Every structure is written in C-alpha cells, then in structure tokens.
Amino acid sequence: MEIREQMLEKRERLRRWIPSSRVENSAGGANHIAVYAKDLEATAAFYTEVMGMPLIEVIDNRDVPESTHMNVDIGGGMMLSFFDFPHIPRLRRRAPEGVGNVMHIALEITEGRKAEVKSRLDAKGIDYQEIGGSVYLKDPNGLGIELLPITSA
Fold first, then answer.
1. Given the DSSP bridges, would you call strands 32-36 and 78-84 parallel, antiparallel or unpaired?
2. Whole domain around residue 55: which residue ranges?
3. Is residue 93 part of a domain?
4. What is the pTM assigned to this prediction?
5. What's the CATH code of the domain at 48?
6. Chain CA centroid to CA 46, Å
7. Residue 137: in which H helix or E strand, if any?
8. Residue 133: is it exposed, middle or buried by C-beta count within 10 angstroms (0-12/13-18/19+)?
9. What's the distance, CA 2 to chain centroid?
10. Residue 62: what pLDDT?
C-alpha cells in the first residue's frame, strides 16, 4: 500500500472519535501555556516590542523559589507563561524537536496587525517565513509562533 493510501486510512480511523452531534467540552478553554525561557528579559522585549503583546505579570514561581514566572497576554483571555530556571543547566538549552514538543502556537491576527509585526521583524532582522498567508517565526526561546490572519467581519 502506498503512503498516500495509508495516510487516508489513518485519517479515516481517527475520524471515529469525532462525535456526530455537538458535545459539550469538559474544559473552559486554555488559560495559559507554560514555556521554559532561557532569558526572560529577551523574551519580554520580543513579545512587547516586536509582537505587540503586553507583559501583564511577573511573579515568583510558587513551586521553585529560584525561578520567575512571567505572563504575556496573547489575546482571548489566554496567556503564554514563561518560566526561567537559571539554576538548572538542562532547562536553559533549546529542546530538540520531537514527539511531545510544541510544533508552534497559532495566534490569530488581523492583516493590519500582521503587517505591523512584519515591519518590526524586518527592522530587527528577525527571520520569518510566509506560508499560505500565515507568518511563521521563532521567539528567543525557539518557540514556534504562527501569526494566522483572520478576516474581519
């Protein structure tokens, strides 16, 4: 069997978990996504100055006193929460890509805001790719971000 046929069959098997009618979700949506950060200052500068997303909180990490917890508002009542662990060397390195890691986080953005962010990316020499109307880039920690254009109603 060729690969295309295998993929089609796998997708069909996966569809068995799609309910035939609307089912209430057991969660109320995501509050935040927790991310390890190598450099909180570089991360704060990137999200506020380049991405136009405000830093809304900096607190101690309730679980680890040597760590700081920083929240960035990414819209829709959701945050990216960055944690540094300067005392743990393995948490200061970028993780290799692989199963269980985040491929990217897709953030909705208007075309006008996308143009503003692209202008700031260009001005700061930050690499990005445009694919299918979306802009893909990496933050200072290597986290993949997709700026996904939305159409205004």
1. parallel
2. 29-150
3. yes
4. 0.85
5. 3.10.180.10
6. 13
7. strand 134-138
8. exposed
9. 34
10. 87
